[in-house]
Design goal:
The structure holds two protein chains of two kinds. By secondary structure, chain A is mainly β. Helices cover about 0% and strands about 60% of the residues of chain A. Chain B is an all-beta fold. Classes of the chains: A mainly beta, B mainly beta.
Chain lengths: ~110, ~110
């Protein structure tokens, strides 16, 4: 039983395309996140959602848009993909009352060619 | 924004040796966490620290929350080959309605059998 699952695991696409990455958690957590890990392995938060509300939105391009149909899902949609978007994207979740409990998915490696 | 300085950047050690890595910040954190990332996987929580001065162990791992709340260290005793991976420190503060987990740049550990 995977706690935080992301699909796809790998995504190769051409510049200018639009793509989505899906994330689902079965932990009953009320907050979900998207992190970006660059080629130097630096992890940086992009978004978080709590009860369907965007509560953190770091300085990411507006080509990136998180969509949460319910509290168990947080999908990441990316428009007009650029070469610099190539990275590993991690979904995570936590329970607001237990802020330490960030559980991460296994990542989606996005390659833009 | 807040940044964590993690060192060393990488370590090459012999199996059986002890390992020490640390993290410092210019600002205070309420919680310090240590994660490990295996290749192709997401970060997995190893140890969480909640109080200044707290010393916590998890098997061969020991971590401490600095008295000033601006630093933390992680020790691994008697390293084994499966300790290979990237270790991240992370700091958590409560801001707005939700905390924001900030990561250090990681320490890549290699263990020679």
């Amino acid at each position: 039983d995977t706690a935080v699952s992301q699909t796809p695991k790998y995504l190769v696409t051409q510049m200018g395309n639009d793509k989505s990455i899906k994330c689902e958690q079965n932990l009953g957590h009320d907050t979900m996140y998207w992190y970006k890990q660059d080629s130097k392995k630096f992890l940086k938060i992009m978004f978080s959602y709590n009860n369907k509300e965007l509560i953190i939105n770091e300085t990411v391009p507006n080509r990136f848009s998180p969509k949460s149909p319910d509290k168990a899902h947080l999908n990441l949609h990316i428009n007009s993909l650029e070469l610099g978007d190539s990275a590993v994207y991690f979904c995570a979740s936590s329970q607001r009352s237990q802020l330490y409990g960030y559980t991460f998915g296994s990542g989606t490696r996005l390659t833009v060619v | 924004g807040q940044q964590l300085n993690q060192s060393p950047q990488s370590m090459f050690i012999q199996e059986g040796e002890d390992v020490s890595m640390n993290c410092t910040s210019s600002s205070i954190f309420n919680t310090w966490l240590w994660y490990k990332q295996d290749p192709g996987e997401g970060p997995v929580l190893l140890i969480a620290l909640y109080k200044a001065g707290e010393l916590t162990s998890n098997g061969r791992l020991t971590a401490q929350f600095g008295i000033t709340r601006k630093d933390s260290f992680l020790n691994i005793s008697a390293s084994i080959p499966s300790d290979v991976g990237i270790y991240f420190c992370a700091g958590l503060n409560y801001g707005g309605s939700q905390g924001n987990l900030i990561f250090g740049k990681g320490t890549k550990l290699s263990v020679k059998p």
